[in-house]
Design brief:
Strand content of chain B: 15-25%
Distance between the termini of chain B: 54 Å
Strand content of chain A: 15-25%
Distance between the termini of chain A: 33 Å
Order of helices and strands of chain A: EEEHEEHEHHHHHEHEHEEHHHEE
Structural class of chain A: alpha/beta
Largest sheet of chain B: 8 strands, mixed
Radius of gyration of chain B: 21 Å
CATH architecture of the domain at 2-228 in chain A: 3-Layer(aba) Sandwich
CATH topology of the domain at 2-228 in chain A: Rossmann fold
Helix content of chain A: 25-40%
Shape of chain B: globular
CATH class of chain B: Alpha Beta
CATH architecture of chain B: 3-Layer(aba) Sandwich
Oligomer: heterodimer
Number of helices of chain B: 10
Number of strands of chain A: 12
Number of strands of chain B: 12
Largest sheet of chain A: 8 strands, mixed
Radius of gyration of chain A: 21 Å
Number of helices of chain A: 12
CATH topology of chain B: Rossmann fold
Strand order of the largest sheet of chain A: 6-7-8-3-9-10-12-11
Order of helices and strands of chain B: EEEHEEHEHHHEHEHEEHHHEE
Chain lengths: ~325, ~350
């Protein structure tokens, strides 16, 4: 039984030049306790898709055009504002890329942490304070007692992100959505934060990790969804995607990742560039950069097709009847 | 195009040739005023005694976490920060002692590519004006401005018809190509790349790295490639210097750094790289964060985070050991009393 299932989600933004479709017909699910990676390059719609799950898209200019997001038997896209607010934070919580802009600069850490507890839990102020303090300690913040009185800017980036993690986890949500949680941090801090998320995440808590970094997905996730130009191009178990990538984009992306080398070394790259969301081609969005594109790719958008064992790919090459290696 | 050339610079370092850039004992300190009437002052030792050299057609990768002083080092070489002490020889000229006029002429040979491609391009200038501005200044134009601009854009893999467009019309990768075109337009000897590919997506990043490698082969450029990302650096550099809190703690050939890191900090950096497809093992975690540059400890600066720290590391600064073309600054490799 999946915890959250997303069906045919599409999000559009009205801009000066017209309407652009940031998320195009995206469907996926997350099981209870699962770690799912949502990978793609900037502008591919991965963050918008994640924000749309809890209706955090600024509207206007954004608009969820179609789709359903089921959490249990409730469709989050059709929930009343009050009911939705009760879901955010306690059932689905988020960790954002820049902790400093996600935390209020005007309020002390303790105040910000207890505010959320007061909203979702039946606790006195004192209890809430103690509860928040215990979580600050759990995420490894030294002098937690004092830090409750600190302002966010007085903490380092890694510490700020720890506070965010504590806030995201302390109401034991069923799903944590982490949007590039370590991109603003150093590699060494990144490793610490990921270990923390792994440790803290209880077994029944699911994680949706949004990132551009395949290495991070490998470390953290069991399953991965690859997005390109507003659409899902591939979805598979993590070992599958690395050992047997199907979509040409996924293959190119995996090959382009720099791995430790012995000095000057030409990398494999994907020629060309991502099409503007205002001018997506008819047919497959990847056709102009794809070495395998043929007639059908120019005219028709490929849907996801099962290539065995739940490995999905949106590529005509993977369609039955085609010999593909 | 994508050839796999695994070259190391083992033979490139010819001791009889003098280096293109030689930095010795460079220090850049900042005074930090605190308290009422700025009575208390602290000193931020952003760069605290750094020495290295870069040969012609060589790339030195400078790696470190944020706040280690790697950007300040680059800016000091460019004359954007004032050095507190030390010497820098570039093309045999003492860079820090040059008059303003001489330094301005020197900038022709010393170019820079910054991290954020948009903020380093003037939004009101079109691409032709941006990439040829320096050429006009130094009277180096070959043919008309337009002709030269077209040639430069072709060189960095952009459509030559784009010369009348403005920076905002380009994607991040294209903007960085424009920055690179501007830097190579002057036919420089050295380009300082300060996190030049860090803001780019993986596939674009690979394109830009390949572009930099190709330009280097064609024009025999040298790069000082500053980045926090050790795996990126190892794909572009001949040699790598690892910086921690204002000092270089280890430097060696790229292959040696990656395959046989000596300094505990370098080992940590390598362990922290998530490598896709590799067997998942419990990675050794780096404890702690980079301490402030204002109050470095008297012994080894890495001591508080070092897994192999001994008593002596706290008390005495580590020795600087040079051996087999490698440099290391650590008590583990000498100076330990038996």
């Amino acid at each position: 039984m999946s915890l959250l299932s997303v069906n045919n989600l599409s999000v559009e933004f009205a801009v000066d030049e017209g309407t652009l479709r940031a998320v195009d017909d995206v469907s996926f699910y997350i099981s209870r306790g699962e770690s799912l990676g949502l990978v793609g390059e900037s502008g591919c719609g991965k963050s918008v898709a994640a924000l749309a799950l809890t209706r955090l898209i600024p509207s206007p200019p954004g608009r969820i055009v179609s789709g359903q997001v089921f959490l249990g038997d409730r469709d989050l896209l059709r929930l009343k504002p009050d009911a939705l607010r009760a879901v955010r934070g306690s059932e689905i919580s988020m960790i954002f890329q820049e902790p400093l802009s996600a935390l209020s600069p005007l309020h002390r850490i303790g105040k910000q942490m207890t505010e959320g507890i007061g909203f979702h839990k039946d606790m006195s102020r004192k209890e809430a304070w103690q509860y928040a303090l215990s979580w600050l300690k759990r995420v490894g913040i030294p002098d937690a007692g004092q830090r409750m009185y600190s302002y966010p800017f007085q903490l380092s980036g890694g510490m700020q992100q720890r506070v965010m993690i504590a806030m995201a986890l302390m109401l034991s949500p069923g799903l944590i959505i982490a949007d590039e949680p370590t991109t603003a941090l150093d590699v060494t801090t990144q490793a610490q934060i990921f270990n923390l998320i792994r440790e803290m995440k209880q077994n029944e808590t699911a994680l949706l990790l949004i990132t551009h970094d395949m290495g991070v997905v490998w470390e953290m996730c069991e399953r991965v969804i690859v997005m390109y130009a507003s659409r899902i191009v591939e979805s598979a178990k993590i070992e599958e995607i690395f050992s047997r990538p199907v979509h040409p984009y996924t293959r190119g992306l995996l090959e382009a990742i720099p791995t430790p080398a012995r000095g000057r070394n030409y990398l494999k790259d994907i020629p060309g560039q991502v099409p503007s969301p205002l001018r997506y081609p008819q047919g497959c969005h990847f056709q102009d950069r794809c070495g395998y594109a043929f007639e059908r790719c120019r005219n028709e958008k490929p849907g996801l097709v099962d290539c065995g064992d739940g490995h999905l790919a949106a590529c005509f090459l993977a369609y039955p009847g085609r010999e593909y290696k | 195009m994508n050839k796999n050339s695994q070259k190391t610079s083992d033979n490139k370092r010819d001791p009889s040739k003098s280096p293109l850039l030689e930095v010795s004992g460079l220090k850049t300190w900042f005074d930090l005023k605190r308290g009422i009437f700025s009575r208390r002052t602290d000193t931020i030792r952003a760069v605290d005694g750094v020495s290295f050299s870069i040969m012609k057609n060589e790339t030195l990768g400078l790696v470190g976490e944020s706040g280690c002083g790697k950007t300040t080092l680059g800016r000091t070489l460019l004359g954007l920060e004032t050095a507190t002490a030390g010497e820098v020889f570039f093309c045999k000229e003492p860079l820090l002692k040059l008059s303003r006029g001489r330094m301005n002429r020197m900038r022709k040979s010393l170019q820079v590519v910054f991290q954020d491609p948009l903020s380093s391009l003037n939004p009101r200038m079109n691409i032709m004006d941006i990439v040829t501005e320096g050429l006009v200044q130094f009277k180096m134009l070959e043919g008309s401005r337009e002709q030269h601009a077209r040639k430069l854009l072709g060189e960095v893999g952009l459509d030559a018809d784009m010369i009348y467009r403005f920076p905002h019309e380009f994607s991040g990768g294209q903007r960085q190509r424009i920055n690179i075109a501007r830097a190579v337009s002057m036919r420089p000897d050295l380009i300082i790349c300060d996190e030049a590919v860090s803001a780019l997506d993986v596939s674009v990043q690979a394109q830009v790295i390949n572009l930099l490698l190709g330009l280097q082969e064609r024009h025999h450029l040298s790069y000082l490639f500053i980045s926090h990302d050790l795996s990126v650096v190892s794909n572009i550099a001949d040699r790598i210097a690892v910086m921690y809190l204002g000092r270089i703690v280890e430097s060696a050939n790229a292959a040696d750094i990656i395959e046989d890191p000596l300094h505990p900090y370098t080992k940590m950096l390598i362990a922290a790289i998530p490598v896709a497809g590799e067997k998942k093992t419990a990675r050794k975690i780096i404890k702690g964060e980079t301490p402030s540059l204002a109050s470095p400890s008297s012994g080894c600066r890495f001591y508080p985070r070092c897994p192999e720290a001994a008593e002596i590391c706290r008390r005495r600064p580590p020795p600087e050991i040079r051996q087999n073309g490698r440099f290391i600054c650590c008590h583990l490799y000498g100076g330990f009393p038996e």
